[in-house]
Design brief:
mainly alpha, elongated
Length: 97
């Protein structure tokens, strides 16, 4: 269960992580400095970020992933799942019949 939560959380944060990585790359390439000659802190990156659009992009990505895997995985209606069993020291995987 925790794996599912972590995967969805990473999908949700993916647009923000990509944006942050891109902006750090661009700013380091430009070597932007303030009036004292210091590089701007990472906090300035967060202050300038379009957080609402990144939030919306994360939600859309998570919902699209959940709909895709919820629609295209699993059995058809009326089929029954038989769980895996241990026979002769080997695990036989579960099946959908």
């Amino acid at each position: 269960m925790i794996r599912v939560v972590i995967e969805n959380l990473l999908l949700f944060l993916l647009p923000t992580l990509i944006y942050a990585a891109w902006m750090l790359y661009v700013r380091s390439k430009e070597e932007a400095r303030d009036e004292n000659g210091n590089k701007p802190p990472v906090r300035a990156l967060v202050d300038d970020a379009p957080l609402l659009w990144l939030f919306i992009a994360g939600v859309v990505l998570v919902v699209a992933t959940l709909l895709t895997f919820g629609t295209y995985t699993g059995g058809k209606p009326g089929q029954h799942y038989t769980p895996g069993v241990l026979r002769d020291g080997k695990i036989e995987p579960g099946t959908i019949q």
